[in-house]
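User: Please fill in residues for this 98-position structure.
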């Protein structure tokens, strides 16, 4: 299953594709299938962590991400994680040529 395209928003509201999607269009499919699957799992774990840090509803914690999710919960509980900033995908004018 191919990872869905990720779009980033410019300050004016224009959306642009991710670097990986641009490279895939230029070079063809350069990623091995297991890399797409791993990237998808990692993206879902990161989305769950961001939701938890922002005190938002959690996305589904499926069986394939249960172990890394549990590991993060255990790690963060011991370390008293208090977020100051949470990463958000953005792009700035001039960063995208196309």
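Assistant: Residues filled in for all 98 positions:
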């Amino acid at each position: 299953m191919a990872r869905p395209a990720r779009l980033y928003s410019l300050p004016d509201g224009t959306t642009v594709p991710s670097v990986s999607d641009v490279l895939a269009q230029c070079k063809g499919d350069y990623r091995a299938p297991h890399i797409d699957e791993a990237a998808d799992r990692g993206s879902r774990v990161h989305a769950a962590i961001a939701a938890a840090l922002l005190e938002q509803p959690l996305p589904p914690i499926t069986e394939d991400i249960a172990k890394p999710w549990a590991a993060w919960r255990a790690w963060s509980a011991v370390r008293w994680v208090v977020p100051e900033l949470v990463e958000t995908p953005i792009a700035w004018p001039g960063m995208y040529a196309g």
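For context: The chain has a mean pLDDT of 78.
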